[in-house]
Amino acid sequence: MALNRLELSGRLLELGPLRHTPAGVAALEFKLVHESELEEAGVKRKVQAEIGAIAFEAQARLVAGRPLGSAVNVQGFLSAKSRRAKRLMLHVTNIEFVEGE
Q1: The total number of structural domains that make up the chain
Q2: What is the pLDDT along the chain (101 residues), one digit of tens a residue?
Q3: Is residue 71 a part of any domain in this protein?
Q4: By residue range, what is the domain housing residue 62?
Q5: What's the whole-model pTM score?
Q6: Is residue 94 within 8 Å of residue 74, measured between CB atoms?
Q7: What are the strands, taking DSSP E only, across the chain?
Q8: What is the CATH number of the domain that holds 34?
Q9: Among 55, 57, 54, which residue's Cα sits nearest to residue 24?
Q10: 48 occurs within a structural domain
Q11: Element (H, E) at 58
């Protein structure tokens, strides 16, 4: 069985408009920024990355109501943006907002 799971903490950097697919499913594209310090090959490394993400239904509505800069922990999987655009997107299946940050 192939694995495709991702957990990431970050902050909301950009929010697109809440829209609906032709099937009527709520969808929201957004961008996260992640910053951390991790160990690689025995050396501490500063990690900075931006990743495009998309959420559907309840998760999309949760994100839509939050201000930019909100701290989040997300879980999901990676997939191509579309059949034509092979750029990876994080498909968020669970999102938790970190209060007080």
Answers
A1: 1
A2: 789 999 999 999 999 999 999 999 999 999 999 999 999 999 999 999 999 999 999 999 999 989 999 999 999 999 998 888 888 999 999 999 998 76
A3: yes
A4: 6-97
A5: 0.89
A6: yes
A7: 6-15, 19-20, 26-40, 43-56, 71-80, 88-97
A8: 2.40.50.140
A9: 57
A10: yes
A11: helix 57-64
